[in-house]
Write a structure and sequence with these properties.
This protein is an alpha/beta fold and about 220 residues long. It is built from nine helices and six strands; from the N terminus they run E-H-H-H-H-H-E-H-E-H-E-H-E-E-H. The chain has helices at about 15-30, 35-40, 50-60, 65-85, 95-105, 120-125, 150-155, 170-180, 210-215; strands at about 5, 110, 135, 165-170, 185, 200. Strands 3-2-1-4-5-6 form a six-stranded parallel sheet, with helices on both faces. Helix 1 (about 15-30) packs across helix 4 (about 65-85). It binds 1,6-di-O-phosphono-beta-D-glucopyranose and magnesium ion. 1,6-di-O-phosphono-beta-D-glucopyranose (B16) binds near residues 43 and 47. The site of magnesium ion has 9 residues, from loops. Its cofactor is Mg(2+).
């Protein structure tokens, strides 16, 4: 029977985590504490507001709501400085090939990302028009691991959740897909993403017949 695919953005289609890191690190520098790449792992798949809270916890800093709003704006401005320079050559290995394959097979796909900048990033890399729908940080009220983002994705695909296959690089995203009763595919470290139904190091590792058995 018919299936559909929901793609996470950061960590699956592009590596924007490195730009988030640079922008958050600048804020940490300004606030006078160290923010490492290891710390940055904690922010993957997490919303912008939650990311700031985690960052401030790491620095042991407590600030007013007003200051928080100010930092959220300045971090995003710095981040935009990086992503407005992104181009198609930043699409991660295997992603374009997979979209081509899905098009050929007539399998529809939507985006399911926590990022409010997702439409901009997809335009930068030339993939915006390929998706049957975009669900991003602007369209949800509850962040992953809440399944909301993927359940809206299923609606956009006009499919039942158990007919949806989610590609995710973050633990919170795999959790969200599992709670939604979807097939979860972990992209990245399989020990970290051990709750996923399937694991692949990256999208180039996906076997040709991967979708065949899911369609029965
Ligand atoms: P923004 P994804 C997530 O993207 C990132 O992994 C996460 O680090 C970021 O905080 C979040 O988007 C929000 O991004 O500040 O652009 O709204 O993995 O869900 O595609
Ligand atoms: Mg991600």
């Amino acid at each position: 029977s018919k299936i559909g695919v929901i793609f996470d953005l950061d960590g699956v289609i592009v590596d924007t985590a490195k730009y988030h890191y640079l922008a958050w690190k600048k804020l940490a520098d300004d606030l006078g504490f160290e923010f490492t790449e290891e710390h940055n792992e904690l922010l993957k798949g997490v919303s912008r507001v939650r990311s700031l809270e985690i960052l401030l916890e790491i620095g042991g800093i407590s600030i007013s709501e007003e200051k928080k709003q100010e930092y959220l704006i300045s971090k995003n401005e710095d981040y935009l400085g990086f992503i407005t320079k992104m181009q198609a050559d930043e699409i991660l290995p295997g992603a374009s090939e997979l979209l081509d394959f899905l098009d050929k097979e007539g399998i529809k796909y939507v985006l399911g990302s926590a990022s409010k900048n997702a439409p901009l990033i997809l335009r930068q890399i030339g993939l915006f028009d390929r998706f049957a729908g975009i669900v991003d940080g602007n369209s949800v009220s509850k962040a992953k691991p809440d399944p909301e983002v993927f359940l809206i994705g299923a609606e956009k695909l006009s499919l039942e959740p158990n007919k949806c296959v989610v590609f995710e690089d973050a633990i919170a995203g795999i959790e969200a897909a599992n709670v939604a009763n979807m097939t979860s595919v972990g992209i990245g470290d399989k020990d970290t993403l051990n709750e996923a139904d399937y694991n692949f190091k990256d999208l180039t590792e996906l076997p040709q017949d991967f979708f065949d058995k899911l369609m029965n």
